[in-house]
Design goal:
45% of the residues lie in helices and 22% in strands. It has one domain: 3-Layer(aba) Sandwich (Rossmann fold). The two termini are 20 Å apart. With 158 residues, the chain is an alpha/beta fold.
Length: 158
């Protein structure tokens, strides 16, 4: 994924022509929902822009980013082609940030290894709220948009 607004938005015509047949799952953490709502909005609108049907987009809300792994595991059983995991973890004063970041990334990685439904990682791991705002519709774009493009690309190679 891009770190500066050098987004990889190019989709081949083959991928675009298949989007209307694809089924998408989006699992969203409600923790830091001012950020995750923006990421979801970017992903959802991008999927629709490229031709996804509203009826082919399923959403599961989970309490926090730690629960994304379980939500994605459940979503893998809901007849989808690809899943986008959306979360936001902001560093605090304790080591909790490190444990959550590592657990979520390892858990989603394991689900990608053991199951056939790919999961796109759209979990911001920022040091402060300003960084999260910048990456959820601010000066660095919206990582939800990038994740939707990645989801279309990965689903098209299945």
């Amino acid at each position: 994924m891009a770190t500066y607004i050098n987004n990889n938005f190019d989709l081949g015509s083959d991928a675009i022509s298949e989007v209307n047949k694809m089924k998408f799952g989006i699992v969203v953490s409600n923790w830091n929902n001012n950020i995750t709502d923006n990421l979801f909005d970017g992903a959802y609108k991008t999927l629709l822009k490229y031709g996804a049907k509203k009826s082919n987009i399923k959403k599961i809300d989970v309490p926090g980013s730690f629960e994304l792994v379980y939500g994605c595991k459940k979503m893998q059983n809901k007849n989808v082609d690809v899943i986008i995991a959306i979360g936001c973890i902001i560093k605090g004063e304790t080591d909790h940030y490190n444990y959550i970041c590592q657990s979520v990334s390892n858990g989603i990685s394991q689900l990608n290894i053991i199951n056939n439904i790919p999961i796109v990682f759209c979990v911001l791991t920022d040091h402060n709220i300003e960084q999260s705002i910048s990456r959820s519709g601010g000066k660095y774009g919206n990582k939800g948009i990038e994740s939707a493009v990645a989801a279309i690309k990965i689903a098209s190679i299945k």
